[in-house]
């Protein structure tokens, strides 16, 4: 897929949002797009996804495409499963196949219990899980993600990271925008930045990973993990029922408040602070 001399403006005499954009999106590539708020990132993603045409230039070789917009139209008259099945059929899937894939993706993102809920009644986080599921169930050859991680809980964000890797490993292309510069930073094939009306290589290095804090906690048997965990929290539960939460040190206080004020509350057993020396004995890291 290639963009050649692509420009976009709104109205015949409106100012140019993008102009002279040249971009190649090869098979299997993971591309990151960055830029200031209002710089034209979303405009570029919509052009890549085929939602609207360039005002000048050409886009060639666009494969079968799926798109997750920055804002999900949650007022549509569907249940979650009905919407996903409908979108699957729009993508060309037979109805039963679309329904099966819709169910599988809702389960993968931890939203299967909301399959029969009307879209307008879903929380922001669950709506975003539906938005991401509608794109992934189509098994696209080009996936365009505009802030798709925003609103997802920690487990769903990790699941989307995994899904992106699975897609690119099959030869699909993924182009994304995300407010966190560390998002998928270790696997990006190319990074570009919108500056003015141009698209330029982004040569800035992503920031070093933030220091991490590990919190060990337990709750009553059968208690689900809190839904509103801080951005970037990783959670796992061991065989003994102890949950291990790993979060950036800057968000550790928020995590502790979330656990203590949950209903039912979590009992915090240990907080392990980050240390500079990896050779420090384990009992001195607590």
From TrEMBL:
UniProt GO MF annotations: ATP binding
InterPro entries referenced in this protein's UniProt entry, alphabetically: AAA+_ATPase (IPR003593), ABC_transporter-like_ATP-bd (IPR003439), ABC_Transporter_VariousFunc (IPR051782), P-loop_NTPase (IPR027417)
UniProt key word Protein transport: no
Domain of life: Bacteria
Domain ABC transporter: 1-221
UniProt entry keywords in alphabetical sequence: ATP-binding, Nucleotide-binding, Transport
Keyword Transmembrane: no
SMART domains: AAA (SM00382)
Pfam families tied to this protein: ABC_tran
Designated name of the protein: ATP-binding cassette domain-containing protein
Species name: Streptomyces luteolus
